[in-house]
Amino acid sequence: MKTPDGATLAADEAPFSPAGAAPARQPRRAWLRPPSSAYDQRSAMLFLAPMIAVLMAVAVFPVLYSFWLSLFDLKLTRPHRVPFVWFDNYLKVFQDPLFWESVLRSVNFTVMSVLAIMVIATLMALLLNQEFRGRRVLSAILLIPWAIPYVANGLMWKWIYDSGYGALNGLLLQLGFIDKYLVMLGDTDKTLGLITNAFVWKEVPLATILLLVTLKSVRPDLYSAAKVDGANVWQRFLHITLPSLVPGFALVVIYEAMMAIRHFDLFFVLTEGGPADASHVVAWQVYVETFRKLAFGTGAALAYIMALATFVLAWFVIRATSRKL
Amino acid sequence: MARIQFESVRKQYPNGYTALENLNLEIADKEFLVLLGPSGCGKSTTLNMIAGLEDVTDGNLRFDTEVMNTVPPHKRDVAMVFQSYALYPHKTVYDNIAFGLKMRKFAKAEIDRRVRDAARRLEIEPLLERRPDQLSGGQRQRVALGRAMVRQPQVFLMDEPLSNLDAALRISMRAEIKQLHQAMQTTFVYVTHDQAEALTLADRIVVMRGGVVQQIGSPDAIYERPSNMFVASFLGNPPINFLKGRLGQTPSGLVFRNGSTALTLPPQAAQKLAFYDGREVVLGIRAEDVAEEGGAAGDACLSGRILSVLPVGSDQFLELEVAEAKLFFRVGKECRYREGEQARLAINLNRLHVFDPDTTDNLLWA
Amino acid sequence: MNKLIPGQRALLFIGSLLFSLYVLAPIGWLVSSSLQSEAEITSVPPHWVPEAPTAQNFRAIFQATDEKVTYETRKQGDTATGGFIPSTAANLLPSMKNSFIVALAVVVLNLLVSVPAAYALAKIRFIGRTTSIYFMLSTRVIPDIALVVPFFLFVQKLGLMDNLLSLVITYLAITVPFSVFILTGYFESLPDELDKAARVDGCSRLQTLVLVFLPLALPSLVAVVLFTFLTSWNEFLLALMFTQTPASQTMPIVVASFTSDFNISFSFINAAGVLAIVPPVLIAIVFERYIVSGLTAGAVKG
Q: What is the ipTM of this complex?
């Protein structure tokens, strides 16, 4: 059977290969993904069902439920009277000066952490990017802070920071920086900084590895081309390394910021929000409202505000991520 | 046994892209059918539909009389050889070949018999305990063939299986596949973009373009009587030469004119083309249908300036500039032509093709 | 960037040394402190290397269930500081057992849930695929804090308080998205034609997954197991909520309870810390290659 295809073929459109070789391999059309048959659709649904069920039950539902809760004045101290208060809880939170102070502390903590993490992790990544003997050993050592639980991390640093017998004090004394032991965590000027240090110490490995991947993704042929073009080391760094690093860099910054904003464990172990609220961040406030004051309505509202803030931040991450999916 | 029928089959993807438009095809039992065309023409899609790897949007696909649209691949009796061989990297050659039989619950003794038999035929017996990554490309291809062979399926599907092999191996494998077909007496459906391969292997060729079947026929029919310009240009190496011009009726017969070129068409052709008197047509001249001038009449010759002479082993390719068109011809090694010279080549007028410039249909073999 | 010139070599060496110090010094101090008696540990300035190392702290932990904690035994440490081994010392080892049980359960369930989902997302083209991916990613955005209140009420209502099951299910929700992410990336890197060949060979979708893809995905499976295990082992906040009694507490809770009690001997706390970090550190060192490749796979795909 023959059908007209309606196109006119000019002489120069015909494929030609004088040596008689077959034309170059046809490129695969990545977007030519077929939909499935009914069997495939059923299989896919079955395979995904457990994951969807788990996530629905333990992620989606709680989020919705917590929003619902935040609209009530629910106090477990007074469980029988639960008035519906619309967005009162939220208003109360926003009108509370303590809340804004805690936001400031969270932001403070986040900014300090992210800065420190990026600086240290970048240096480490640059180091690990080189090929040298013992690199694997260094890499394994590097993973240790990442692997240990935050509570152990907190415990370790609490002891180091101890005002009476801590290693930090001892070191400073021995090096001659101070002549008697200082108050560490108890000193409101130092509290947040010390917690930051503990947090940074544990987060650096992951950041390093992520940055390492970014470093490795820079195409080596760009360097060769630049060398031929006459660029020196500094120029190559400025015009090739740096621009290729920016997206990966940004991703790590956003990720670590997210981690810092919601971090809780260290605040519990090291200072419990003190002293005198010096480390009373928003995450801690949620805990206090919910488990100390048993004001579940307020706690839920706070949690929701935090979740929203994190979500907005994460939206940027998802946008960057989904481009490659 | 295995007669495959496509009844008005259409394949459309959710994003609107139509890969196959109204495909009607009947594949006879035991024939070697080649689906030929450029990338994106729908040949692989058609093959995948037979396998069940893609489903039918509209229309029916039948094996014998049974509608197979909703039958998943593992319930069909087809075997497939892939371009990248797709051997299971974690299994030995033996297990690779035996896998399909194992899945279909054959007895161990029977599996062993078939596997060793196929291995012997394909001369890969010493490789049975090796893993795919220890094999060369050609060896892997044989294992892939073996895997399909032992199934003794109703239909043998092959998706550009030789594209990843080097040229010499490709030629020898073609012969082996042809022999395999004879030995197995099963329907073979073979996808390729290589026209030489199609011409060598096929009982029938289906030429496809943009999801539409251009022509179905034996290799000879497709080559000698292409139904349109696309088919004509797709087969033949170097591709057919097209020359635009106008037909004019003269006392000596129907003449094709383009500038200073004038060719008198043979009477049988003139009869069929009478309707086109005074109209524009496209002439199709295959590269091999020329000879040295040697006393041929002026109205059976093409003259032009030689742009290049390319020796290719036993022949030469001549690039001739005729009326602003660059035409390629194949002549014998003994001919002496020089670049920049004017030359006249005699055309075998009986082998001319004439096409309608708008519909691109072949006017002589409608 | 790969050739080493002499000056570079020295720089690398110094750099490596500095970073190793940065990582190992605090841990070293932790270990050193755990081996010091209460008397030694309270010296000013501190003894960096224990002059009289003792295993009494570890002994206290391991034998806590045997020894009765009485008024006398409490004052084992330096009377000046009043530090003592707490009666809750007995809880540490059982809590580690709890942590282990939970982590193991989560790993198994995680694999059962994530592997099929990842295969479907990677290899099956179906309606709703993109939506599922976005859905899965967005659930990981929710901070654990936001789950606290609803979970607590729910778990209470269901009577699952103090039940390790509540932890297992919760941790599943935390670890599944990441596992699916890693596995999907890895499955996608396996050739499509392998999938087709298996299906034409006679495998149903499930058989294709189990017989063909799983064996090939071993590296990423290992990575998933490691991440899931570590996440479960280390998790604190949710465990804090769901486990009130010592019988059901996991390790981080018990360790945290030590740190909040000001009367507990410092050396003991450090010993507890050492025990707490032994499993993760071992895992990190032994499986470094898998962890790094798992993390980088996630990063490369994302």
A: 0.81
